[in-house]
């Protein structure tokens, strides 16, 4: 296993409903891999996100720091868009992953009468 020949995995969390609280998930390195590099975080949006008071987020981190690796601000991402690190260019905080399990938090937007946002979360990591 060398840095010049990583195993790239795209983890998909289908149809996450951010409007009802999103949820917590985890992704894990394949057996034998201990280090990784986050290449992208994105959401294939199927219901437009609200951001009346605060936006929804996809956070990648550890059990002690929810956003140690990334925090993608969903803003008012529109239905049928793929909203990713091209839309939030400072979303990746620390691309170098040193944990074999990454905690994923899909945080609901707040404010307004009905917080909303649904989409499939995509996390792409190159493991070494």
Looking at this protein, list some descriptive labels.
128 residues; mainly beta; Jelly Rolls; five-stranded antiparallel β-sheet; four-stranded antiparallel β-sheet; 47% strand; elongated
Describe this structure in words.
There is one protein chain. With 128 residues, this protein is mainly beta. It has one domain: Jelly Rolls (Sandwich), CATH 2.60.120. It has no helices and 9 strands. The chain is elongated. It starts with 6 loop residues before the first strand and ends with a strand.
SSE map:
Elements: E1 7-17, E2 23-28, E3 36-47, E4 57-61, E5 70-73, E6 82-84, E7 96-97, E8 101-107, E9 118-127
Antiparallel strand pairs: 1-9, 2-8, 3-6, 3-7, 3-9, 4-5, 4-8
What fraction of the residues are assigned to beta strands by DSSP?
Answer: over 45%
Helices, by number, come to 0
Oligomer: single chain
Shape: elongated
The radius of gyration over CA amounts to 14 Å
Instruction: Assign the structural class, choosing from mainly alpha, mainly beta, alpha/beta, alpha+beta, or little secondary structure.
Output: mainly beta
The CATH class turns out to be: Mainly Beta
Head-to-tail CA distance between termini:
6 Å
Give, in order, the helices and strands: EEEEEEEEE
Mean pLDDT: 96
Low-confidence stretches: none
């Amino acid at each position: 296993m060398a840095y010049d020949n990583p195993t790239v995995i795209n983890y998909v969390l289908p149809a996450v409903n951010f409007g009802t609280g999103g949820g917590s998930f985890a992704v894990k390195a394949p057996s034998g891999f201990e280090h990784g590099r986050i290449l992208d975080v994105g959401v294939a949006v199927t219901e437009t996100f609200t951001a009346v008071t605060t936006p929804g987020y996809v956070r990648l981190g550890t059990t002690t720091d929810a956003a140690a690796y990334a925090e993608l601000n969903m803003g008012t991402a529109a239905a049928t868009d793929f909203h990713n690190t091209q839309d939030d260019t400072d979303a990746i905080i620390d691309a170098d992953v040193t944990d074999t399990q990454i905690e994923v938090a899909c945080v609901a937007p707040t404010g307004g009468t009905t917080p909303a946002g649904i989409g499939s979360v995509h996390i792409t990591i190159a493991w070494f």
